[in-house]
Amino acid sequence: MQAWDFLDHANAATAVYDREHADLYAVFGPVNLAVHGVQIATELGEGREALRRADKTDPRRMPAVLLERRSTLLIDIARAQHMQRDTAAAGETLIEAERIAPLEVRYSSAACGLLTELLSARPHPPAELRQMASRLHVAA
Questions:
Q1: Which class in CATH covers the domain with range 2-136?
Q2: Is the alpha carbon torsion for 57, 80, 106, 97 positive or negative?
Q3: What is the block-wise mean pLDDT of the chain (140 residues), using blocks of 10 residues?
Q4: Are 7 and 40 in contact (CB under 8 A)?
Q5: In contact, 76 and 38? CB cutoff 8 Å
């Protein structure tokens, strides 16, 4: 798949970096590329591969200001957990993503779609998910 090829080329370029580069316009480095790897696997519907990649990703190595990237990673992990039918973990991970970057979750169609699915997956969804749905104006 071409996405994996592009990611491999970008990973080769990170060999000269020992840390993440982040400024107003760009973020680049090994951890950010690992986040992209999780995202690619998630978008391709490869939940197990996404979770395998997420286990090898240490977001603490990112600059602290990159809350959006951390939240994006957590949204993708939650989606992958849901793909693997672990709805409890998916809900907890989505809640953590909102704690880190509430606006990222609010304006993420993937996060809102996942929240809708999680709410309909159980007859009595957890109160935290129902409260999140209320905050995000997602139909329960």
A1: mainly alpha
A2: negative
A3: 59 60 60 86 95 90 82 96 96 96 95 95 89 88
A4: yes
A5: yes
pLDDT at 132: 95
Helical pair 109-121 and 87-100, crossing angle rounded to 10 deg = 140
User: pTM for this one?
Assistant: 0.84
Q: Which of 89, 97, 88 is nearest to 59 (CA)?
A: 97
DSSP conformational letter for 21: E
Domain ranges of the chain: 2-136
Cα angle 57, 42, 113 (rounded to 5 degrees) comes to 120
27: β partners:
22
In the block, which residue shows the tokens 């996404």? 50
Stated length of the chain: 140
The pLDDT value given to residue 23? 54
Task: Give pLDDT, residue 13.
Answer: 57
